[in-house]
Amino acid sequence: MNLSLLVFLLSVSSLSSSSSSSPAKLSFDFYSVSCPDVERHVKDAVKTRAGLDPSVPGKFLRLVFHDCMVEGCDGSILLEGDESERSDPANASLGGFSEVEGIKRLLEIFCPGTVSCADVLALAARDAVEMSTEQYDSFQTGGPSVKIPLGRRDGRVSAVSNVRINMVDTSFTLDQMAQTFSSKGLSVDDLVTLSGAHTIGVAHCSAFSERFKEDSQGKLTLIDPSLNESYAAELRRECPAGASSSTIVSNDPETSHVFDNQYYRNLLVGKGLFQSDSALLSGGRTKEKVELFSNGQESFFQGWGESFVKLTAVDVKTGDEGEIRRSCGSVNG
Q1: Quick one: which H or E segment has residue 222?
Q2: What count of Cα atoms within 13 Å lies in the side-chain half-sphere of residue 148?
Q3: Which of 41, 66, 198, 257 is catalytic?
Q4: Other CB atoms within 10 Å distance of the CB of residue 230
Q5: Cβ distance 125 to 40 under 8 Å?
Q6: Which terminal CB of the chain, N or C, has fewer other CB atoms within 10 Å?
Q7: pLDDT per residue of the chain (333 residues) written in tens, 0 to 9
Q8: For residue 57, what is the enclosing H or E element?
Q9: Computed from CA positions of residues 167, 170, 175, 177, in that sequence, does the dihedral angle turn out positive or negative?
C-alpha cells in the first residue's frame, strides 16, 4: 500500500473514533462484532458467481459507479420501481442486481438485519476487481487488493429525475466529465483512474455507434477522428447495421476479462471504445496520467486503490441516516 493511500485510509478510519455526540462514520472494524465474517462471505459469493459468469465483475463495477454518482453510495440504484433510478434508459443495460440480492440473502442468514445493501455492493465491486488467475482457471480480473471502510446505510430515495443530472454520459467532453466528478468531491486524477474500470466489462452498440457511419456501399467514415479506423471497422463488424439492441462488445478489445492497464495502452492508439474515453487525451494533465498508467501497471493499481476508496465514500449515509434494508430491491415496510 503506498503512503498517500495509507494517509487517506487513516483519515477515514479516524472519523469513527470521534466523540459519541458526533455522527457515526465509516470504519474498518464496523462489523467486527456484529458480523465479523462479512468480507469473507461476500468474497466467497463473488467468486462463486463470477466463476459461473465472467461478466459479473464488470456488472458489479458499473453498479457501484451508478450507485455512488446518484444520491451517494447508498444502494439507491438497487431499488425497484417505475420512477426509480433503475427505470432511466441510461440504466437499462445495468446488470448484477440478482447477484447482489443473492449475497444480501446469504448475509441475512448469518447476520440478519446487520449489513446494508450499500456495503454489500461496495464490497462486491472491490472483490470483483481483486480476482486473479490463482483463484480461477477459466478467467481472471487480476486487480489490486483494496481495503475499504464500511458502515454505509441504505437510502430510502431512488428517483429517475436524479440520474441524468449526476451521471457521466459516454459522449461527454473532458470538461463535462471533470465538472461532474468535481461535484462529487472527485478530482481529475480520480477521473482518469476510475475510467480504468473500462478495462473489463461490456457495452451495447448504441453507446458508441455515433462515432462512425457507413454508407450504402459499405464505406466507413469516422465522425470522431480520435477513433482508430481499423478499430472502428472491427466495431462495425461486431455491430452491423440492424443489429439487435442487445448486441454487446467488450470495453477492452485486448484483455476483456483482465483488470489491468491495457485500457490506457488502448487509448494511446485510438482504441478507446467511448468518446468519453478518447476525451482523456484532450487535456495535458489527463494525457500525462494516461501515459503514466500505460507504462506502469503498479502505478495504476496504486491510483486505483486511492480513487476507489474515495468513490465508495461519496455522500454516504451513516449513523441514524437511511436504514438497513431487508431486501435490496425495496425499502423496509
Answers
A1: strand 220-222
A2: 31
A3: 66
A4: 12
A5: no
A6: C
A7: 454 444 444 444 444 433 222 345 899 999 999 999 999 999 999 999 988 888 899 999 999 999 999 999 999 999 999 999 999 998 999 999 999 999 999 999 999 999 999 999 999 999 999 874 434 445 556 899 999 999 999 999 999 999 999 999 999 999 999 999 999 999 999 999 999 999 999 999 989 989 998 877 778 889 999 999 999 999 999 998 777 778 999 999 998 888 999 999 999 999 999 999 999 999 999 999 999 999 999 999 999 999 999 999 999 999 999 999 999 999 998
A8: helix 56-68
A9: positive
Helix axes 56-68, 117-130, angle to 10 degrees: 130
Q: Which helix (H) or strand (E) covers residue 309, if one does? A: helix 297-311
Its sign, for the CA torsion 118, 178, 182, 160, is negative
242, three cell numbers? 440492424
User: Does residue 66 have an active-site annotation?
Assistant: yes
Helix (H) or strand (E) holding 103: helix 97-110
Q: Which three cell numbers stand for residue 269?
A: 492508439
3-state secondary structure of 250: strand
